[in-house]
Amino acid sequence: MILLSDYTFQTVALGSCLLGVISGVLGSFAVLRKQSLIGDGVSHAALPGVVMAFLLTGSKHTEILLFGALMSGLMATFFMISIVKHSRIKFDSALALVMSVFFGFGLVLLTYVQKQPNANQAGLNRFIYGQASTLMQRDVILMGVCCVILLFVVLLFWKELKLFSFDPAFFNILGFPTGKMNLLLSSLIVLAIIIGLQTVGVILMSAMLIAPAVAARQWVNHLWTMVTLAATFGAISGVGGTLISSLSPGLPTGPVIVILISAIAVFSLLFAPEQGIVYAVFRHRKNNIKLKTEKKGGIS
Fold first, then answer.
1. Cα distance between residue 208 and residue 197, in whole Å
2. Which residues, 6+ apart, have CB-to-CB distance to 163 below 8 Å?
3. What does the pLDDT average to over 256-276?
4. How far apart are CA 194 and CA 184, in angstroms?
5. Which of 30, 152, 198, 245 would bridge with 253, disulfide CB 3.0–4.6 Å?
6. Residue 276, Cβ neighbours under 10 Å: how many?
7. CA 164, CA 167: separation in Å to the nearest integer?
8. Where would I find the H helices in the chain?
9. What is the CATH number of the domain that holds 231?
10. What does the pLDDT read at residue 264?
11. Whether the Cβ atoms of residue 54 and residue 118 lie closer than 8 Å to each other
12. Which percentage of the chain shows pLDDT scores above 70?
């Protein structure tokens, strides 16, 4: 009870909850569009933007570093979309190419900065592994503002996003701009990824984006309920992971959050009704038994 009233715990838990909600909402569209790996690519591609922002400004303010990450993430997304559009290279190959180049460049810049005599560069590597415990009130406010903007845009273009996710060909036949909608959705996902870098880092952010949506998809068949359930799973993992790490000193908050949401996803894959693996095996055996019984009845 004392822990729940602790200011630091409240700040980190609220920030993690906001990250879980927006990751669940936008991750649902990434999963439905079969672009689950975009989170991995963009999060890794954000690293050089963080370091470049520090090199150009000399500031470690979260807003400045995340703005640099946003610019780098958007640039990487633009490159991926352009490569797929203007060449024969498939999306997964383009993503792997862009991700490796950007992340490698980011590591080179980070190594260069850390070898400088200026002690101000300490702490930049928190964006690689995440450090949720460093979240401050202004960071949470920034996350809250971004979440409100993202949710507003999703609600504003809900019908278009729904049609684009399930049937892009029909979306194009109706005269809607497929390229612009793809760019809009990709930009929303990039922003959602960027605001989570400080919490779970570039390495684990892809799991935070995809796992809530994968878990929710096993339980429901409608987009609205899937998005709502994914946001709920994300929020639960954010608050639950923060609580577990607070009760167990030494456990990093970001990885614990990812482990928790991954456990929810695995449980859903195994035990969800209708679509769970266990249910599918049970139904298969039941059908085999029924078939054998009918064959015996026919023979007799």
1. 10
2. 170, 171, 174, 176
3. 91
4. 15
5. 245
6. 18
7. 6
8. 7-32, 38-45, 47-57, 62-86, 91-114, 126-129, 137-156, 158-166, 168-173, 178-194, 197-217, 223-247, 253-271, 277-299
9. 1.10.3470.10
10. 95
11. no
12. 94
Question: Is there a contact between 130 and 123 (Cβ–Cβ < 8 Å)?
Answer: no
Q: How far apart are CA 261 and CA 274, in angstroms?
A: 21
Amino acid at 7: Y
How sure is the predictor about 224, in pLDDT bands with cuts at 50, 70 and 90? very high
24-55 residue pLDDT tens: 999 999 898 887 778 778 888 888 998 898 88
Alpha-carbon distance 26 to 185, whole Å?
8
Answer for the pair 113, 121: CB distance below 8 angstroms, yes or no: yes
pLDDT, residue 299, reads: 54
- The DSSP 8-state label assigned to residue 248 in this structure reads S
The pTM (predicted TM-score) of the whole model is 0.86
Locus of tokens 């991700």: 99
Phi, psi of 121 (to 5 degrees): -80, -10
How far, in Å, CA of 118 to CA of 154, rounded?
43
> 7: buried, middle or exposed (CB in 10 Å: 19+, 13-18, 0-12)?
exposed
List the domain range (segments joined by +) for residue 8.
Answer: 3-299
- C-alpha to C-alpha distance for 35 and 126, rounded to whole angstroms: 26
Total domain count, the chain: 1
Q: What is the distance between the alpha carbons of residues 223 and 217, in angstroms, rounded to a whole number?
A: 9
In the numeric block, the tokens 């994914």 are attached to: 230
* 3-state secondary structure at position 205: helix
CB atoms within 10 A of CB 107: 15
CA–CA dist 242, 250 (Å, integer): 12
